[in-house]
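Thread: quick sanity check before group meeting

JM: Hey all, I'm pulling together slides for Thursday and realized we never actually wrote out the predicted structure for the chain we discussed last week. Dropping the sequence here so it's in one place. If anyone has concerns about the input, flag it before I start.
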Amino acid sequence: MNKNVLQTARRSFIAATAATVIFSVFGTAAQAAQDTLTIGLIPAEDSQAMIESSKQVIEQLERESGMKVVPFVATDYNGIIEALRAKKLDVAYLGPFSYVLASSVADVDAFAVAVTKKTGKSAYKSLIVVRADSGIDNVDQLKDRTFAFVDPSSTSGHLFPKAGLENDGYKLDELFSRVVFSGSHDASLLAVANKKVDAAAVADRIYASAISKGQLAQGDLKVVWSSNDIPESPMVWRKDLDPSVKEKVAKALANIKDVPWGDQGMLNGFQPTSDAAYNVVRDTAKVLNLDLRSMK
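JM (edit): ok, ran it. Output follows.
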């Protein structure tokens, strides 16, 4: 056979083989991308409980979706947001304020929120509670009283009640004689019950849980103020995620039940939500002139 013909045949064989290998590699990668879901998670206030419940949720998500779920754990929400921006994550679990930030800097949408069997709701409220025998029946009567918030970055234990009171025309530095941060909702409740402070802002579900656990009696405290509904922390996805993957993930999350979800109790699935549900969070951020990059 002619030498040139042999060389041409050899080059054609090598090119065809290389093309086959390249196609195989990239084809496999594309298929893997379709079969793999990357999810960003970060511990909530109860870190250990959230980490453990996340593992169980991931296991059920894999079973329900038929996809391999690869978790990405960051030390803070900004790490999750940056990963979404860089398209290294498909979906993520964010706090309400962090979602508002993410939606302004990354191409993402809130699409689902957890619903627990304990509440059956996808929203909660901030309450201001006082001792039942305090003689305090409304916010006006908190003038010159001592008050406990939970933590500067707590949604229901500080930000929403602070914004709500300011919207109602109160100046907190003039209303209260002293303000402290207790560090937790339970600590705030006990501070009121034990007469360490006159009033405190807490999450309604944690107040109800303290009563059900016997930490407080039903008649020990009473509510003198309640916020508007606060949307739960959302699951978000990149807007450019494949529609078939979105459908698969949404259906899978809706079927995840009977696993613990942080301090909120047992999951009863995730129900649909939308970006508009977080307008109340945006309004709160504006009232308080918040730096959203520091919020949870």
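AS: nice. The chain has two domains: 32-121+233-294, 126-227. The mean pLDDT is 84.
JM: adding both to the slides.
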